[in-house]
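Saturday, quiet lab. Running sequence design on the C-alpha cells for the scaffold JK sent over.
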C-alpha cells in the first residue's frame, strides 16, 4: 500500500482514539503518534513489494514495555493491516491512558447474569477432597519432592 494511503488510514484511526499522528515521514516510511499523558510510539511501514512486516516501537522507556502485546501480534503468522496493528497498540496502552481494559468490561458484561452456586456439603465427594502440598524446603526436583496431603 502506498505510504500516503497508510497515513490517511492512520488519520482516520486517530480520529476515534486519543492519539494524534504528529509526523509522517514518507522517505523513512515512519509514522509517529502521541497522546496525553506522554504516551508515544511510532510505526515503520513496509514497502508494498518487499514482504516485510510493520514494526512498532517507542523511544519512551515508560511506553516501551506496553508495546509487547502489539509486537507479539505483528510477529505472529500472517500479514497484518495497519489498522489491526494500531488497534493492538491502543489496547496495549489503555492502562497508561487511564482507560479501562476492553476485555475486562466484555467479560464482566458477559458474566453479569450468571449466578454463582454455593457447593453443597453433602456433595463434597464429587469435588476435591484433599490437596497435595509440595514441601518446598525439601525439594531438589519435581521428581524428588516430598508432599503432604491435607484434608479439606
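Result came back. Writing it out in full:
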Amino acid at each position: 500500500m502506498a505510504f500516503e494511503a497508510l497515513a490517511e488510514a492512520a488519520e482516520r484511526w486517530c480520529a476515534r482514539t486519543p492519539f494524534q499522528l504528529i509526523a509522517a515521514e514518507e522517505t523513512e516510511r515512519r509514522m509517529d503518534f502521541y497522546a496525553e499523558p506522554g504516551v508515544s510510539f511510532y510505526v515503520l511501514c513496509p514497502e508494498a513489494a518487499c514482504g516485510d512486516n510493520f514494526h512498532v516501537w517507542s523511544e519512551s522507556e515508560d511506553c516501551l514495555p506496553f508495546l509487547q502485546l502489539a509486537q507479539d501480534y505483528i510477529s505472529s503468522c500472517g500479514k497484518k493491516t495497519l489498522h489491526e496493528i494500531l488497534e493492538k497498540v491502543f489496547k496495549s496502552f489503555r492502562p497508561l491512558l487511564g482507560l479501562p481494559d476492553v476485555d475486562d468490561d466484555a467479560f464482566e458484561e458477559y458474566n453479569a447474569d450468571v449466578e454463582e452456586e454455593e457447593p453443597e456439603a453433602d456433595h463434597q465427594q464429587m469435588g476435591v477432597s484433599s490437596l497435595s502440598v509440595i514441601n518446598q524446603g525439601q525439594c531438589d526436583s519435581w521428581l524428588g519432592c516430598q508432599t503432604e496431603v491435607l484434608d479439606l
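Notes for JK: Helices lie at 3-14, 68-75, 82-93, 102-110. The longest strand covers residues 20-25. Ask whether to fix the surface positions before the next round.
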